[in-house]
């Protein structure tokens, strides 16, 4: 027994090996994505568009930084710091090339709950001035930023812990309708929080359950206290912002550089307020003193971490989910991949490191990311360039913002949330594709505005999982159908021979958010293997999945793919007769399969489709209207392929291959 144990121990030691230099380099590239793309950065092609995008992004970072700091109930200068450090950290650790990290409306709104609860406004007069305050700010302002910093630090620690636990793979339970509803509801909260600035009213901080409705009740009860000057200036600012941004969007192809209307409005409003002394003449609230420079780093206060744990979880989850959705969208748009777990690490470190520099909680914002799209940014260099201009504002231009009216800043916030607010239009899309997803959207939105963004997110996830659990027992999850593959040779009039493969794959399970990604991965693997010259057709059976549980494991087939033959053609028939039900994620994945296959010159035909599936796919995607893709049966689809090749003198033959069923 002793000898056997020694032998076993020696075998274990034999399998272990000292990390080699290549292993360390590969680990660093995986955890520090900047080491992967920076050495290959093309200065000639990318520097100019990244510079232009960086300048435009800096304008957004400064304006939103000031605005979201006020939203977070801290001094505006801390928003400038929050626009600088998180962007640098994410550029090093993040994988989203077009993701602009910085201050974020939703995380600011969540951290404001902790700030107002622990350091309420009514104790401001009780604090005494101190000569030891940072940057000349009052003790009251420093107490408030300490709370926001604690939320940022603990939120980042939670995100890093989720990275260590590899929970990024569990984000598939957060579906697109839930994210859309949560962000729309949170944007509605943000707009509501800016009403007091838009109207020039003095209003106490109102939060908690149904706080959304209490705010509007207070406004209507005190409607006589509205300052007409602030209201008119707010309306004028909103009209100018919306009009110019729409013109920029409409003529962006004809003009090389869009007009930075936010910057122009800030300069014009500040100059007008200074010349007319609006602060004293009309009683307009202004931003006030902006200290110059960056304070020396200081550790977050550890004694209040237990008091902000609820808000920290909200910041960690809401910030990550919203940021991941933007990163995945940019990766899909520009054809690259991201690691969900690595994004946990990137945003966690962004919050942790930035908290030492008095930064409020950070995340990626839709408006800034869309700005990078429209200005043609190529890499994260655009974000690093924007940080240079933010530094210039912090050290030189910041004090000039003293006269900026708060109502103008609130108008910039409201218009900046347009991308989130117009997600109301998604309701029609969800209704046409899957009415249950539409119901989830509405209920998640209602919970978000009645309670908070983190509560709405949790409700949406729980509701989605509960509905799927209720629907799955009605599905024949273990039904397996035979798959037949055909190949026939086509002799053209020029006597050149090409190989035409017709692949028939049965889908025998529901296609929902739980298995949509797995379905896409396996199907693409099958197509890639079948397009390889030297890959035997029998190897397809290696990807066989026999149960639904296997399809939920997020695994994939990792066989190597050879270079495809240039003369090979392929048609794919998806037999949807066993397709019991689907949701929005399933339909979007089917459309994505169709578009990807179209790009690979693979014709996709769907047989035995229900009317609801045809309606959903037709409504969701811009499908090819010239070629029919929906057929009553598999034989009808095969006849269609045969008829298209009739003019080329088809030589037809059938081959039967081993049984395989996708998602079965």
- Low-confidence residue ranges: 12-16, 475-499, 533-567, 647-664
Largest sheet: 7 strands, mixed
General form: globular
Helix percent band: 55-70%
Number of helices: 28
Computed Rg: 29 Å
Measured between the Cα atoms of the first and last residue, the distance is 46 Å
Mean pLDDT level? 80
Strands, count: 9
Strand content: 5-15%
Kindly name the structural category. Answer: alpha/beta
List keywords for this structure.
single chain; alpha/beta; seven-stranded mixed sheet; two-stranded antiparallel sheet; 28 helices; disordered C terminus
Summarize the structure.
Keywords: Anion exchange, Cell membrane, Endosome, Ion transport, Membrane, Transmembrane, Transmembrane helix, Transport. The protein has 664 residues and is α/β, with parallel strands linked by helices.
Notes on the structure:
The chain is an alpha/beta fold and 664 residues long. Helices cover 56% and strands 6% of the residues. It is built from 28 helices and 9 strands. It has helices spanning 2-15, 21-31, 34-37, 43-71, 77-82, 85-93, 105-118, 139-164, 176-193, 195-199, 211-221, 228-250, 261-276, 278-281, 309-334, 340-355, 366-374, 381-397, 406-416, 418-421, 426-433, 435-450, 453-471, 516-530, 548-551, 584-599, 611-620, 634-644, and strands at residues 101-103, 362-364, 485-491, 497-506, 568-575, 602-607, 630-631, 650-651, 654-655. Strands 3, 4, 5, 6, 7, 8 and 9 form a 7-stranded mixed beta sheet that branches. It has a two-stranded antiparallel sheet with strand order 1-2. A hairpin with a 5-residue loop joins strand 3 and strand 4. Helix 4 (43-71) packs across helix 18, helix 7 (105-118) runs antiparallel to helix 15 and helix 15 (309-334) packs across helix 23. The longest helix has 29 residues, at 43-71. The chain is globular. The two termini are 46 Å apart.
């Amino acid at each position: 027994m002793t000898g056997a144990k020694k032998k076993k121990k020696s075998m274990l030691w034999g399998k272990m090996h000292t990390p080699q230099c290549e292993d360390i380099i590969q680990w660093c590239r995986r955890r520090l994505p900047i080491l992967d793309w920076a050495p290959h950065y093309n200065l000639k092609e990318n520097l100019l568009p990244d510079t232009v995008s960086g300048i435009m992004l800096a304008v957004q970072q400064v304006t939103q930084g000031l605005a979201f700091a006020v939203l977070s109930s801290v001094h505006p200068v801390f928003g400038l710091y929050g626009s600088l450090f998180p962007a640098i950290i994410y550029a090093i650790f993040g994988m989203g090339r077009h993701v602009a990290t910085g201050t974020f409306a939703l995380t600011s709104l969540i951290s404001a709950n902790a700030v107002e609860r622990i350091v309420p406004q009514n104790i401001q007069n009780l604090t005494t001035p101190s000569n030891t305050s940072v940057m000349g700010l009052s003790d009251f302002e420093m107490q408030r930023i300490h709370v926001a910093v604690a939320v940022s630090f603990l939120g980042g620690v939670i995100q890093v812990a989720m990275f260590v636990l590899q929970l990024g793979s569990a984000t598939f339970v957060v579906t697109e309708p839930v994210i859309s509803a949560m962000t729309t509801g949170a944007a509605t909260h943000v707009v509501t929080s800016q009403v007091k600035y838009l109207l020039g009213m003095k209003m106490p901080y109102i939060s908690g359950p149904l706080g959304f409705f209490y705010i509007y009740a207070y406004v209507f009860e005190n409607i006589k206290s509205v300052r007409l000057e602030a209201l008119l200036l707010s309306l004028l600012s909103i009209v100018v912002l919306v009009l110019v941004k729409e013109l920029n969007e409409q003529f962006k192809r004809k003009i090389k550089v869009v007009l930075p209307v936010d910057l122009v409005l800030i300069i014009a409003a500040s100059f007008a307020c200074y010349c007319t002394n609006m602060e004293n003449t009309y009683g307009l609230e202004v931003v006030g003193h902006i200290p110059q420079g960056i304070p020396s780093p200081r550790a977050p206060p550890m004694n209040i971490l237990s008091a902000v744990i609820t808000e920290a979880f909200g910041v960690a989850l809401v910030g990550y989910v919203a940021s991941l959705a933007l990163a995945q969208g940019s990766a899909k748009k520009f054809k690259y991949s991201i690691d969900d777990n690595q994004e946990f690490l990137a945003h966690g470190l962004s919050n942790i490191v930035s908290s030492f520099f008095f930064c409020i909680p950070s995340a990626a914002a839709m408006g800034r990311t869309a700005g990078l799209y429209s200005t043609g940014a190529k890499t994260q260099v655009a974000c690093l360039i924007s940080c240079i201009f933010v530094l210039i504002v912090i050290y030189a231009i910041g004090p000039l913002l003293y006269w900026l009216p708060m109502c103008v800043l609130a108008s910039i916030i409201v218009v900046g949330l347009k991308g989130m607010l117009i997600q109301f239009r998604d309701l029609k899309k969800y209704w046409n594709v899957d009415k249950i997803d539409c119901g989830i959207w509405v209920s998640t939105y209602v919970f978000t505005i009645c309670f908070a963004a983190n509560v709405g997110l949790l409700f949406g996830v729980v509701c989605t999982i509960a509905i799927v659990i209720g629907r799955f027992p009605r599905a024949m999850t273990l039904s397996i159908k035979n798959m037949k593959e055909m190949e026939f040779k086509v002799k053209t009039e020029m006597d050149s021979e090409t190989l035409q493969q017709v692949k028939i794959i049965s889908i025998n399970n529901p296609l929902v958010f739980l298995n949509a990604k797995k379905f896409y991965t396996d199907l693409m693997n099958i197509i890639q293997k079948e397009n390889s010259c030297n890959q035997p057709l029998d190897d397809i059976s290696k990807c066989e999945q026999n149960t639904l549980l296997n399809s939920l494991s997020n695994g994939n087939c990792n066989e190597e793919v050879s270079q495809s033959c240039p003369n090979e053609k392929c048609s794919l028939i998806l037999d949807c007769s066993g397709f019991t039900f689907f949701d929005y994620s399933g339909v979007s994945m089917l459309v994505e399969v169709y578009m990807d296959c179209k790009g690979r010159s693979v014709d996709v035909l769907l047989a035995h489709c229900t009317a609801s599936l045809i309606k959903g796919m037709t409504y969701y995607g811009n499908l090819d209207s010239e070629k029919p893709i929906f057929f009553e049966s598999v034989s009808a689809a095969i006849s269609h392929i045969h008829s298209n090749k009739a003019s080329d003198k088809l030589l037809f033959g059938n081959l039967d291959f081993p049984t395989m069923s996708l998602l079965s």
